[in-house]
Amino acid sequence: MNRLSSTIVCAILFPALVGACKKSATQTEAMQQERQASTEATPTSGWTQTSYTYSIQTPWNLPQSDRYSYSSGEHHFWIYNGDACQFEGCSTGPRSELRMNNDYTSGRHQFEGDVYIVSGSDGTDIMQVFGGVTNATSLLLKITAASSGTIKRYDNETLMTSAYNKWIHVNVQHDADNGKIYVYLNNTLKGTFADRGNANHYFKCGVYNITGSRSETRWKNIKYWKNGPVGQ
């Protein structure tokens, strides 16, 4: 084949090869995107959002507005060291909390919300799954001052560091039938934990207990979900 013939053959074949390569790359990208979408399902996929009512619990000897406010979709909760508990004569720590009226003893239930933890909050529980046999709660998410804000399960497992002064998406799934709790932060599963026995359960969020001088959280987009897949 002379040089002219070679040039003509390449001119004919090369565009076809390029087109084939582009098609293959496009198909590969589409497959990758499909796989990525399938592995990034949110923790609420397959769940049913459920309406709820709630009450606010604050120190008994102060006006509620001294420790709680609500504006533009945000609940603000704060307490000081030395504050009283929620009713006269109680012996628990100070609190400013939303108590969701979603009492349950069986089934699958999920809490969802966004939390902003103000720096300096220390030794404070920011979210609870209330109810247990060996303890009063099945889960506490706790903030300490270490590492610019560390979120732990009770005083045990570290779930996140550098948690101060940013919005964090929280999902907590409770499979009460099988005694399991799944904790997600920013749509990432951070741990699966045994609950502390079947009892009357409900969800709470805000601030409860304190070792620093002042603790504050802000919560928004609080939702309640039921009967979906857990640990996805």
Number of domains: 2
Q: In angstroms, what separates the terminal alpha carbons?
A: 61 Å
Number of helices: 1
Beta-strand residue percentage: 35-45%
Rounded radius of gyration (Å)? 25 Å
Q: How confident is the prediction overall: mean pLDDT?
A: 87
CATH topology of the largest domain: Jelly Rolls
Helix and strand element order? HEEEEEEEEEEEEEEE
Unreliable residue runs = 1-40
- What structural class results from the helix and strand content? alpha+beta
What is the overall shape?
A: globular
CATH architecture of the largest domain: Sandwich
Could you name the CATH class of the largest domain?
Mainly Beta
Largest sheet: 8 strands, antiparallel
Residue share in helices? 10-25%
Number of strands: 15
Question: What's the short story on this structure?
Answer:
This protein is an alpha+beta fold and 232 residues long. It has one helix at 3-39; strands at 48-50, 54-57, 68-71, 74-80, 95-100, 108-117, 124-130, 137-144, 150-153, 158-160, 167-175, 180-185, 188-194, 202-208, 214-226.
Write up what this structure looks like:
By secondary structure, this protein is an alpha+beta fold. It has two domains: 1-40; 48-226, Jelly Rolls (Sandwich), CATH 2.60.120. It is 16% helix and 42% strand. It has one helix and 15 strands, in the order H-E-E-E-E-E-E-E-E-E-E-E-E-E-E-E. The strands form two sheets. Strands 1, 3, 4, 6, 11, 12, 13 and 15 form an eight-stranded antiparallel β-sheet that branches. The chain has a seven-stranded antiparallel β-sheet with strand order 2-5-14-7-8-9-10, with no helix packed on it. A hairpin with a 2-residue loop joins strand 12 and strand 13. The longest helix is centred in the N-terminal third of the chain and has 37 residues, at 3-39. The radius of gyration is 25 Å and the shape is globular. The model is unreliable at 1-40 (pLDDT under 50). Residues 42-223 form the Alginate lyase domain. Keywords: Signal. This is Alginate lyase 2 domain-containing protein.
